[in-house]
Amino acid sequence: MIVVDPSYEIQDDLDRASLTVRLEACGRICYKSEEKISESSALPFVKKIAEHGHNSVMEMAVVTLRLVCTSQQITDLLGCQPKFLFVDRVENGLLVTGSIRTFRELYLAFPEIALVQAMVDFLGASHPYLFEGVWQSQKRQGGELIGVEKIPLEEVEQLASNLVLRHRFLGVKFIVNRAVTHEIVRHRPCSFLQESQRYCRYSQDKFGNQVTFVRPLFFAPDSAEYQLWQQAMELTEDLYLQLLETSTPQAARTVLPNSCKTEIIVYCNLAEWKHIFRLRTSPAAEPSMREVMIPLAAEIEKRYPKLFM
Ligand SMILES: Cc1cc2nc3c(=O)[nH]c(=O)nc-3n(C[C@H](O)[C@H](O)[C@H](O)COP(=O)(O)OP(=O)(O)OC[C@H]3O[C@@H](n4cnc5c(N)ncnc54)[C@H](O)[C@@H]3O)c2cc1C
After folding, report:
1. CATH level 3 topology of 61-151
2. Which stretches within 80-194 are classed as H helix?
3. For 12, which of 75, 141, 246, 291 is 20 to 30 Å away at the CA?
4. Which CATH class is domain 2-18+168-303?
5. Three-state DSSP state, 110
6. What would the pLDDT profile of 228-262 be if each residue is shown by its tens digit?
7. Annotated catalytic residue: which of 188, 280, 290, 303?
8. What are the boundaries of each domain within the chain?
9. Residues 98 and 86 sit within 8 Å (Cβ to Cβ)
10. Is residue 279 within 6 Å of ligand 1 at its C-beta?
């Protein structure tokens, strides 16, 4: 068995990546198939994901748009009560942030709304593969002209504080135990992707033919309690590997414990991170959760001192 310490990584590199590269990098965490990433792998991967309806992958990239439009067009959009879309009024129109999934499903539900058409026409023109099966390029007749402009991340960061909180999305990859992931996924406004014990077969070479556990912070390394924990993990690993000889990973995983190492990506806006830090760094929170959240909160607070006062 392998024992690792918990950790986290803010996904700054993916902020600068294209939408498809970002979606692939996040999506592959489920299968732990990152070794398959190549210069040409992103597009076929994302197309297959969209086809199979692995929808949470399509939540892992957001786009911020500025719309120049009329009051009536705004009223029509808000009348749809668009879900998972962050909408703010700005001069001459709207500032809108949503994930690829949000835009896809908004178009499926409300293809007749002018602002929905304008946003998806704009995104579909440059990324048609992200809207396959949902949207097709077409010439629209009549209607009042709508201006659509993509706002780069650097510009989002320069907006007023209340807008940065809502429109700046940030992804963090955690390596934590399964108890921590169970708790993190309760934060409903976030998007999540995590290593799947259904797909990952830990007897494979790429996993070192063994199970990885997260070191529990509760027991000192040389204590009797730590020895007991280690015995339990060794026994569990042995049973899991035996089960894999005749069963699928999804069947064998039924013996895996909370200490199992899991990778999870949490993607949400800064307002939600603020909420998460308030709850998950407090003395009432679970110690293994605080172990990663306290240093992460400190790092993000340093980046955005005015927002996290
Ligand atoms: C110390 C601690 C102990 C806990 N113990 C338990 C426990 O014993 N059992 C248990 O089941 N859970 C437990 N939880 C989980 C907790 O109840 C919440 O589910 C979790 O912290 C998610 O936070 P949230 O609901 O505030 O907000 P999030 O899901 O992060 O949502 C953010 C905000 O969105 C809004 N929101 C989202 N969804 C809705 C909705 N459906 N309706 C209204 N507003 C919404 C709210 O304003 C909310 O503040 C515990 C959490 C903590 C921090």
Report:
1. Alpha-Beta Plaits (3.30.70)
2. 100-109, 114-126, 153-156, 161-167, 178-184
3. 291
4. alpha beta
5. coil
6. 999 999 999 999 999 999 999 999 999 999 999 99
7. 280
8. 2-18+168-303, 61-151
9. yes
10. yes
